[in-house]
Amino acid sequence: MAQGESPSVLEAMQQQWVSMAGMGVMFVGTILLGLSIQPLYNVPEARAFGEEGASKAGFVALEMLLILVFTVVIIWLARKGLDTVIKVIVLIALWYSLLITISPYAWKIDVVLGLGVVFQLTAVGISIGLMVLLHKYPEWYVVNGVGILVGAGVITIIGISFVPVLIILFMVIAAVYDHWAVNSSKHMLELADTMIALKLPVLLVAPKEKGYSFLDEGDQVMRGETPDEMDWDDPAPDASEPKKGGRDALFMGLGDVIFPGMLVISAVSFLPEMGPEINTLFGTMHAGPLTVGLGTLVGGLAGYLALMAQVALGNPQAGLPLLNGGSILGYLISGVIALGPAALWQDISFF
Predict the structure, then answer these.
(1) What is the CB neighbour count within 10 angstroms for residue 66?
(2) Residue 303 in domain
(3) Could you tell me the residue range of the domain that residue 139 belongs to?
(4) How many domains does one find in the chain?
(5) Phi-psi domain of 234 (left: phi exceeds 0; alpha: psi -120 through 50; beta: other)
(6) Between the chain's N and C termini, which has fewer beta carbons within 10 Å?
(7) What are phi and psi of 55, to 5 degrees?
(8) pTM for the predicted model, two decimal places
(9) What is the pLDDT of residues 144-197, one digit of tens each?
(10) Which residues contact 343 (CB under 8 A, 6 or more apart)?
(11) CA proximity to 99, closest of 44, 157, 135, 153
């Protein structure tokens, strides 16, 4: 490569294929973990707004409003220097999401061991232990482990709460907002930097080099060095050298995993129960909806590959337009093939 010449997208992706593959594994793993516990939560009592609320668009509008309010509040607190308040708010939300994911597995372990209701204490104990570990030692693998568990819980609870038509509406609105927040207002980059500085697992981290430490990241990763300022003749400096911006690791917000995952869970939860039953660890699924769910995941992976082509040169990108777009396309294609177009529509109302 000539002095000062930027690499092509393909060359940049080849240099970073390990971190990109690792991020892809975490993307798929989070969604599959949520899918594994879906049968246990797929009951009217577990839906956020009840059985009737699953088809009411007003509750999707409420969810989007809550996301906007949360973003504004966190950015305001960060600008005021109230990092402790941010950390307490986020950790409480994370702890609850951890319980959602951990409880089914704790219950299953306790059943196997014949311990009965002790699973509740087991789940609480494990989740508290993870929160303490995260607070004491928020290295990238701890952040990723907690983030995957949290993401799976959020995917499951929201996915079982809304029919696919509303989830798709939610995804389209969120994609438009994400594009604006990253490329126009750029406040999403500020929010990401706040979470990175506080070492909170609302994102996934894929190191690009050995010896990388998330503990050394500052608060200007996403808004720091741009591709034009990078030394492409030394794209991965020795770990002993000072780090520059966020190019020593690949970052993906949990929302970029949660939105495609929600559609996977919703498809399995609400589409017509066609095809043979499939026994799982926590209940049964039907082959038809499961095929559509997995097709949605494949579409999300296609969107992920397109996204990686965009971020390979170091540009912060709005992930949801590509990830959500790929997931929706995968849902429609696999749905038409597996169940027929009529099965993909659900009647909805505002309230």
Answers:
(1) 10
(2) no
(3) 15-266
(4) 1
(5) beta
(6) C
(7) -115, 20
(8) 0.88
(9) 999 999 999 999 999 999 999 999 999 999 999 999 988 888 888 888 888 888
(10) 271, 272, 274, 335
(11) 153
